[in-house]
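User: Batch of two.

Assistant: Item 1 of 2:
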Amino acid sequence: MAYELEGIAKKLGIAVKFSDGGLVRKEYEVSAETIRFFIETFGYKADNETDIANSLHKLENARWQQTLENIYVVPQDNIEFDVVVPEDWQNEYFDVRLFAKGEKTAEKIAYEISSRQEAALIKGKNLRRLYVRITSPVKIGYYNIELSVKGKTFKTMLAVAPIRCYEAPAMERKLWGFAVQLYSVKSNRNWGVGDFTDLENIVRICGRAGASVIGLNPLNVLMHNFPENASPYSSISRLFLNPIYIDVERVPEFEENDLQLIEGTLAELRNSELIQYGKVYPLKISVLEKCYQRFKNGKDKNRQDAFKRFCREQGQDLERLAVFQTLYDKFSQEVWGGWTAWPAEYRDPRSPEVKRFAEEQKDRVEFFKYLQFEADRQFSAAADVVKEQGLGIGFYRDLAVGVGKDSAEVWSNPEVYIKDAGAGAPPDAFFPGGQKWCLGAFEPRILKEQCYEPFIKILRANMKNAGALRMDHVMSLMRLFVIPDNGLPGTYIFYNFADMLNIVALESHLNRCAIVGECIGNVPEGFMDVLHERNIHPLSVLWSERGDNGWGDFFAPSEYPKAAFASVGTHDMAPLKMWWYGYDIELSYSLGLIPDEEAKTGAYHKRELDRWKLLFAMDSNGVWPEDRPRGNNFIYGEGYPEGLVEAVHRFMSRTASQVFLAMPEDILYVEKQQNLPGTDRDKHPNWRRKLPVPLERLESDIAYIRAVEAIKKER
C-alpha cells in the first residue's frame, strides 16, 4: 500500500522524501498522513487500497480523456504538441491553424503529424496519441490553435518561448546601483513613509552618481484595514500597488487647505524613529477620500477618461480587489478570521450576493479603484524619470514568492491555490528551524488548466516599469515547500518546471525585463546550471560567498559568478556595522532564536573568526582607502574600522558580477536590522526602520560620498 501511495504522490508531484538545506544536510521521510493530505487536497482518494487503486487508474488515464490539453508551452526551437484521437483517425487529414493572440487570420505554417505507437483502451475505445510538429519558424508569443479532423474542430493555446530570458543591452558592461526599501526612505517632505516622489528623487540621485539600477522591495498592495501588517512579502494582491506610496500632495485633486488640520501630525510622523503605519496610512486615506470626492464631482474630462480607461484595462482583477477591500471594510468590524470566516455567500466573488453588495457600495468600490489609478500614475511618472536620466536598467522590482492566504488574490480565484495549506521552507543554513510563511501556493494542475493565466498576470504586473525583476525564492518555479494548516509536517510540491521557465522567458522578452532569481536556501542539485542556461541571473551575497559552507575564507572578487546581481547582504540580514559588532547575535539570543549561552558564545567566537577573515579578504585584494589604511586587527573590541565601508564596497564593486547593489543601511552605518525572519512585530519592529539620513542631505553626507567614490573606482 505504501508503494502505491508513493506512486500517486509521484504522479501528482508530491515529494515523499527530501533533504534540507542545513549546514549538515538531513534527510526526511514524508509521513503517510502528509502524503494523503495532499493527495486528497488535489482531488483524489487514498484512504484504503481500493481508493488508491482507483486514484492511480484515474491518474494514469487522465491525459487520454481529452483531445488537446488546455495549453502547450514550448520552446521556439521545438514547437510540438500531442493530440489524442480514436485509433482509426490516425491516417486522416489533420488541418492545423495557428492564430496570433487576438488575430482572426491564421498564419501560414508548415507542420507534420507523427506517431510514436502510444495507444490506450479507454471505456471501450481504442485511442492513439499523435504529435503535431510545426516546422516553419514561429515568433515568440501566445497563439490559439485550431485542429480540425473528421469534421470536428478542437482548440488549444500555444505559448512559444525563447530559449533564454531577456538581457538588457546595458548589461554588456558592469553596472551598479542601490537596493532600496522604499518605505524606509526618510525625507523632509514625505508623510512618515517613503513615497513615489521620493522614488523620483532617488532616480535623480542615481543619475548624478552614475548608477544604473534601483532595487526595490515589493510594492504590492497590503491589507487596508490592518496597516500595521506591513510585510511587503505578504500582500493581498501581487497585481496592484500599495497606496501608502502615493504622494498625497501630488494628487491633482489635493488642495493646500487639506494640510491645515494635520501639520502637527505630519511633523510627528516625519520625526518618529520608526514608521507608524497605524497613523500614516489612515491619515493618507482620510485626505485621499477628500481627493476622490473632488475627482468624482470634478470637470477634468481627460482625467476622468484616463480613470475609465485604467479600469477597463485592469478589468475583473481590479474590480475584485476593490470589492474585496470594500467587503473587508464591512466584515473586519463583525467577523474575526479573515475572508474564510465571512458568511458563505460572500466567500465567492461570483455570487449574486457579492454582485449586489458591489452595486450597493459602488462609491466605495470606486474609491479603491481610484487609489490604484493614482498609485499607477505616480509610479509611472517615476519610471519616466528613469528614462530621462538614462539609467541602463532602472527599476529592479521584487516579486514575492506568494501572496497572503487572507488576500484578494486567493479570494478571487481560490481554486488555483492549494487548499488548507501554505508555503514555507524546510530548515537551511540561514534558518535552522525552517520557516512558515503562511502564503498561498499555486495548485500545479489547476494552474495549468487555467493556462497559467494567474502566473502570467503576476509576472506582467511586476515587470511593469521595470528593467529587471527579482523572483523571490526562484526555486518555486520547480518546487515549493507547502505546510498543511492542520499541524502536519510539510513537503515539497513540484511544478511543471519546463512550462514555468518557458513562461518566465517569454514574458521577460515581451516586457523587455531581465530576470534575477533569489536562490539562497535549499537549492536542488543542478538547479543553478538550469538558471544559467536560461539566463536567469543569480544573486551573490558577500556573507554566503565563502568556502566550507560559510566557515571558510571569503571568495575573491574574480570567483563571483559573472551573471550575478551581487550585494553585501539583504534586508533579512544584519547591516555591515551591526554584523561587525555582533549585535545581531545578541538580538537573536534575547528573542530565543539562539537557544542558550553556549550557542551564543559559539556564535560570538565564530563571528570573531569571520571578522578576521573579512579583514584578510580586504587586505588580500588591496581595497582599503588610501587615506584610511587598516591600522590593526580590530578583533577584541577595538571599534569599527575606519575605511571598512569603503573597502567592502570596493571589494564588491571589483567582483566579476554584472551588477553590484549597494545598500544604504551599509553605507550609512546602520546598526539595526530591517527584518528579522522568524519574528513578528511583537518581538522586533520588522519593516519599520527608517534610514538615518534624509534624502535631501544624502548627497552631502560624507559616508555616502566616500562609498560612492569607492564604488566608482572599481565600476
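Item 2 of 2:
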Amino acid sequence: MTLTDWVLIFLVIQLIHFLGTWKLYQKAGFKAWEAAVPVYNAYILTKIINRHWGWVILLLIPVINVIMLPIIWVETLRSFGKNSTVDTILGVVTFGFYIYYVNYTQDVQHIKDRSLQPKTAVGEWVSSVLFAVVAATIVHTYVMQPYNIPTSSLEKTLLVGDFLFVSKFHYGARTPMTAVSFPMVHDTIPATKLKSYLPKIQLPYFRLPGFQKIKRSDIVVFNWPVDTVNAFQQYGDGKYYYKPIDKKSNYVKRCVGIPGDSLEIRDGKIFVNNEPLKLPQKAKPQYSYIVTTNGKGLNLKTLYKSLDVTDPVYGQGNEGNYVSGGVYSKQNELNGVTSPANRFVLSALTENSVRRLKKLSYVTSVERIIAPKDYTESEIFPYIGGNMANKDQLGPFYIPEEGKTVAITPQSIPFYKRIIEVYEGSEMNLPHKISVVGNQVLLNGKTITEYTFKQNYYWLMGDNRHNSEDSRYWGYVPENHVVGKPVFLFMSFDKNAQGIANKIRWDRLMSTVGGDGKLKSYKYLVFALILGYFVFSFFQSKTKKS
C-alpha cells in the first residue's frame, strides 16, 4: 500500500470514530470537535473511560491496536452505563457500531468515576482474556518468540525437535507489516486451514534499534524469501497465495556471509573474502561420503546411531552422479536393513564421525562426495545455464550492502534481478521490471549500467551441507526478512527414541544456543528457581493468613 492509501484509511477511521462518538464526548463534558482530532481524540477517550493515557500508545502499535479496539468499544459502553452481557456482546460482534446506536438513540449519562471492575462474569472474562492476549502479543512480537526446529539443516547445533526462544530485540524488533492479523500465530489459524491475516493491509518496513548486528556464523531466524514463488497450498484449496513478508514461512540457518562480503564455495567449503569461514566450536559441518567395505553386510540404522548421526538421509543415491563407477544400494535396500552392497552413500557425517568410521575393521575407504567444478545443477542460484554452479562449487559473488553501488551487465544481472524486481521492487510497491536486450540491461524500459542497493542482504546456509535448502537454492536474504536470533533452548524431543522418558533430550534442556565451547544446560538452576518461587509463595500466603 502507498502512503496515500494509508492516509486515506487513517482519515476514514477518524471520521467513523467522530460520527459514532461526538455526542458521547459532549455528555462526558468535552467538545464535539475533540472527537475528530487524530491521536488527541484517543487521549481524551482515555479520560472518558477512566483509563491510563498509555492506552494511546497501545492503539498506535500495529497488531496490538487491532486487539485493543474491542477493549475500547466495551470500555466506552461501560462508561455510559451499558454494563450488561448483551451490551458487551453487541459491542464486540458489531465491530463497535453498537456505539452508534447508543450515541444517537440512547439518553445515557457519563459515569465519571466509574468502578473499573466488570459488572458481569462475562465482562470480567472478556476483559481478562483480551488483556492477557495484548500482553502476550507484545512479548511475542517485540521481545521473544517460541520456535520449533523442523529440519536437520543445522544438525549438531540445533536438532530436529528442539524448541527455542528467539530474541526479537538482539537485531532490533521488526514492527508488523501485516496490520490485521490473528494474534500470536503465524500464517494459519490453529486447527483450521484459514489464513490468519488480511494480506492487502500492509505497513511499511520498520525495525526498532537493536544492540548488535548480524555477524558471520550467527544462527538467524528469517522469513523464507521465495515463499511466494511456487504454488503455496497450505490452506488445502489448491490456489496460489501471495504471502506478505512477515507471514512467509520461518526458516533458521547460519549466516555465512554479511553485507559487503565476497563469498565462494570451493569443494563444499565456504570462503569469505578469500579466507576460510571461521565457525564456532559448536558448529559441526556435515557432508555425504562414499563408503566402501570389504563386503560385509551392514545395518545402516545401527551404523548411523554408532556414528551419532541423529537425522540421516537413507540412500542419497542421486549423489552418485558426482563420482564414476561403483555400486550403490537402492532406496528400498537402505531402509534400515542389512545392505549387501560394499559401496554406498552415508549422509550427515561430521569430521569426527568420519574418523570413527575409518577405524571400523570392515571399512576399506571413505571418500567425501564433492561435485566437480564443471558439474551444473539447474536449481542452484542464480539459475543460469552453463554457470557451472552446484552445491559444492559456487562463486565468488558479492553480497549486497545498503547504499553501495554495483555495475550492472548482462552477466551480473542474474545475481541481482530478484533483488531489484522483488525485494526492492514489488515488495516496496515500486514497479521494477528488469529485461535484457542484446548487451543492455533495462529497468522499466530504461538502460541501467549500475544499481544502488536500498537495504542489506545476507547469505544463510545450513551446517548439514548436503541436506539443507538454503541460500544456494534461492539466493540472498533481505534484511527486512530477518526475524530474530535464537538464544535459549527450553525443550528438546527425540521422536525416534524408545520410551517417553528417553524422548526428552535431558542434556539439552534449558541451554543457550550461542557461544563457543560445549553445550551447557542450566536446567538445575531453572528448576531450583521455580521450586524457590513456589516455596516463597507458600510461606508468603501462610504469613498473610496469620
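The radius of gyration is 29 Å.
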